[in-house]
Specification:
Layout: E1 6-7, H1 11-16, E2 20-24, E3 27-32, H2 36-45, E4 47-51, E5 56-61, H3 64-67, E6 85-91, E7 97-107, E8 110-115, H4 120-130, E9 135-138, E10 143-149, H5 153-161, E11 173-178, E12 181-186, E13 195-201, H6 205-213, E14 218-220, H7 223-232, H8 266-275, E15 280-286, E16 297-300, E17 303-314, E18 319-326, E19 336-341, E20 344-351
Parallel strand pairs: 1-3, 4-14
Antiparallel strand pairs: 2-3, 4-10, 5-8, 5-9, 6-7, 7-8, 10-13, 11-12, 12-13, 15-18, 15-20, 16-17, 16-19, 17-18, 19-20
Helix pairs in contact: 2-7
Length: 363
């Protein structure tokens, strides 16, 4: 392993399973085991287990208003009910997305913030600089995280931790003991399927990994399948579809911005809203099985009008799909586009998100 790469506690388990390992966000991560298509199919029909220990986790405790935490994100922390979580953004002064993240309300004065792996150090610094009080700590190294995703995940979790977990609605979580350790089980995920994210002390995560894989309904899945799964349901990937040069308005994610509250980047977004965006996210389906790739050009009438930020072959649609950014007038559903790269050329049509609409996520 490259000495510069971090390793999750589950790394040796991946080696035993002959996983293809590769760098991702500064970590050595499993890309695939049996194969991307097979793992994708298992997640859509059974229950797939993902090692997500590379994600960052922070704890904040204190008064949300006087500490300044309420003004850090594009959503209100104070209005999240205890036991629920909320998705949104940490922005820069220009309205660009420093990171997309989820905040879990643990108590009246306590939250956990789950962030992307590659951005975690920068996120921690950015949040720290904006706080005026409270206790803010990075618990990433002490925290393990496994995601169990797929239509059978509920029955697997019920057998593991009890019937109570079956009552969890989407974006709600519960705290409990698993393997004798304090854990959080959250009804969230990144696949478009029914699923759970389990946060547990790092020293227990390998034991939990083995226990879940002892169930014949569960198979491991890597980041390759995860990328196909998330794109089929239109979820953005930080570093590809969103970044510090991209605003939520350009990325079609305005629903996760509460303009009725203060936050850093709000003034820039209001100006952009008034003036109009010069580029906008677009989803398209390719007329064939070829995959559009990151950085391929998007063309219209022989002119380059944007670029692809994510693209894969979708097993559920049987064709290539992708998202990218183009001028706003080319985002209407049905608009023809051409995706090009060197000698590659594919005809595509603008479509609605999500590409795949029949997942079990809200079951």
């Amino acid at each position: 392993m490259d000495d510069q790469l971090h390793a999750t506690p589950v790394r040796l388990k991946h080696r035993v399973l002959n996983a293809l390992m590769a760098p991702f966000g500064g970590w050595e991560m499993p890309i695939q085991y049996e194969g991307i298509i097979a793992e994708h199919s298992w997640c859509r029909s059974q229950a797939a287990l993902f090692d997500i220990c590379h994600m960052g986790e922070f704890l904040f405790q204190g008064d949300f208003a006087t500490s300044g935490l309420e003004d850090v994100f594009t959503f209100s922390v104070q209005t999240i009910p205890v036991g629920r979580s909320r998705y949104g953004f940490l922005l820069n002064e220009s309205g660009g997305i420093i990171d997309d993240l989820i905040v879990f309300r643990l108590a009246d004065d306590k939250v956990m913030i789950v962030v992307n792996a590659a951005t975690a150090p920068n996120d921690f610094t950015a949040i720290t600089e904006r706080l005026r009080g409270g206790l803010f700590t990075d618990i990433t190294a002490a925290t393990g995280k496994l995601d169990l995703q797929g239509p059978l995940s509920r029955s697997v979790m019920v057998e593991l931790v009890g019937e109570e977990v079956a009552t969890l609605p989407y974006f709600k979580f519960m705290t409990m003991n698993i393997l004798g350790a304090p854990a959080i089980v959250s009804r969230t995920g990144y696949t478009g399927e029914l699923g759970y994210e389990v946060l547990i002390p790092a020293e227990k995560v390998c034991e939990l990994w083995d226990l879940l894989l002892s169930d014949i309904r569960v198979k491991p899945a890597g980041l390759g399948a995860r990328d196909v799964l998330r794109l089929e349901v239109g979820y953005s990937l930080y570093g590809s579809d969103i970044d510090e040069a991209t605003t939520p308005l350009e990325a079609g994610l305005e629903n996760f911005v509460n303009f009725d509250k203060a936050f850093i980047g709000r003034d820039a977004l209001l100006r952009q809203k008034e003036q109009g965006v010069t580029r906008k996210k677009v989803a398209f389906k390719v007329s064939g099985r070829r995959s559009p790739r990151h950085h391929y050009d998007i063309c219209s009438a022989g002119e380059t009008v944007g670029n692809v930020t994510s693209g894969v072959f979708s097993p559920m649609l049987g064709s290539g799909i992708g998202i990218g950014f183009v001028t706003p007038e080319l985002t209407a559903v049905g608009t023809p586009l051409t995706i090009t790269h060197e000698r590659v050329s594919m005809e595509a049509t603008v479509c609605e998100l999500p590409f795949f609409k029949d997942g079990s996520v809200r079951s």
